[in-house]
Amino acid sequence: MKSPARTTPTSDDDREAGTFTYRSTRLFEAYSDAEAFRAHIESFVPVEFRRDWGLPAIHQVGLAVAEVEDAIPELEALGIGPFLVVESHPKVWIECGQTKRVRLKTGTGYHHGYEIEPLGPVDGSEIFQASIDPQGRPVVHHVAFRVSDVEGWTARFVSEGYPLVLRVRIGSGPFNIDATYLDTSKDLGLLVEFCSYSIFGKCFRAPPAAFHMGGWLQRLSGRRTLWLNPLSSALSKRSQRRGI
Question: What is the pTM of this model?
């Protein structure tokens, strides 16, 4: 499969550090018109690359930020969101082949039909740390494609030489979010994620209105973080106290 040329920054809003692309919040201000914003987001993955792979439309843009709860008010002030903020111990976190126990905080909001996901530093992992902008600007870390067969898409990309960076499962009870991250930075300047939402093993599309309502209630209450799996957290703390 022919690899497309790597995308390069085209303005002062974009600059590269390592393998990731810095983009300021002006990304959202400059493309407030819905059609222009959609066209810009879709340009993150060149048409040739998407055609060769048969990829669907981009579902999500993942932003690496220094602190999720600090970044969200700035993003919401631009008319993005509101954001539902969730903290959890993922059920599965396999990073570059190593199984880790981590603590993750993410925000989920929507802008012109795209899921926007700010992610902060992860306790127990360095995966987003290298992408955090010293100037404090959000960094476009990855784009996600919502698919029903995460494993199938992952295997295809790995077979063509794209390293599997992270495999993760986040959820509570029968509800799960499964995702894999592939290092496509040599061609795209960012990572590609494949993700799916499921309940009792059946994939479904999470309604944006649910995140919107959750974020609005969090903002109204003044408590911006929800523990996704409080039971497993309590059991983990009890085990630690007992030395298990």
Answer: 0.85
The helices-and-strands tally (H runs, E runs) of the chain is 8, 14
Q: Is residue 79 part of a domain?
A: yes
pLDDT tens across 76-135, in order?
999 999 999 999 999 999 999 999 999 999 999 999 999 999 998 888 888 888 888 888
* Residue 62 to residue 140: CA distance in whole angstroms: 6
Q: Give residue 36's Cα distance to chain centre.
A: 22
Show the domain range for 172.
14-242
In a domain, 2, yes or no: no
pLDDT tens-place string over residues 152-166 = 999 999 999 999 999
Residue 208: alpha-carbon gap to chain centroid = 15
Closest by CA to 22, choosing from 37, 36, 10, is: 10
Whole-number Å distance between alpha carbons of 235 and 210: 28
Q: How many CA atoms lie within 13 A of 83 on its CB side?
A: 27
CATH number at residue 87: 3.10.180.10
Cα separation, 65 vs 68, whole angstroms: 6
The whole-angstrom separation of Cα 162 and Cα 153 is 12
Q: 220 to each of 201, 214, 215, 216, 224, how far by Cα in Å?
A: 33, 10, 9, 6, 9
236 found inside a domain: yes
| Alpha helices (H) along the chain | 26-30, 34-42, 47-53, 68-77, 150-159, 185-188, 208-221, 230-242
